[in-house]
């Protein structure tokens, strides 16, 4: 079981990528997290699309079965355009209007999406009514 993680580990987005890397490693090594822990390989995408696509190709060469990342929207869009051959959990959301293949998931923490979710929940809870 090999998990490839595509993150910007250098450059202006490096601190965000390194924080995610630390979180994944902490989970990987916490006692009882997995029956059989996966092999996790990290690939530096930098901040450019080419870096993410190069990292994706390297991950496939090492027989990754799943990919976590990339983090940056342009990189996610570029990977999505390649119709990945393995499962992907992208760490950003590129929008609902773009069709996604099976086993391509997005996990984004957009403030705009959070606001829409809060408003939807408030309206559904009948605490407030839409005006």
UniProtKB/TrEMBL annotation:
Q: Which GO terms describe its molecular function?
A: enzyme regulator activity
Q: Name one GO cellular component term.
A: periplasmic side of cell outer membrane
Q: Which SUPFAM superfamilies match?
A: Periplasmic binding protein-like I (SSF53822)
Q: Which GO terms describe its biological process?
A: peptidoglycan biosynthetic process
Q: Which InterPro entries match?
A: LpoA, Peripla_BP_I
Q: Could you confirm whether the keyword NAD appears in this record?
A: no
Per UniProt, the keywords (alphabetical) are: Lipoprotein, Membrane
Is Membrane found in the keyword set?
A: yes
Protein's name according to its UniProt entry: LppC family lipoprotein
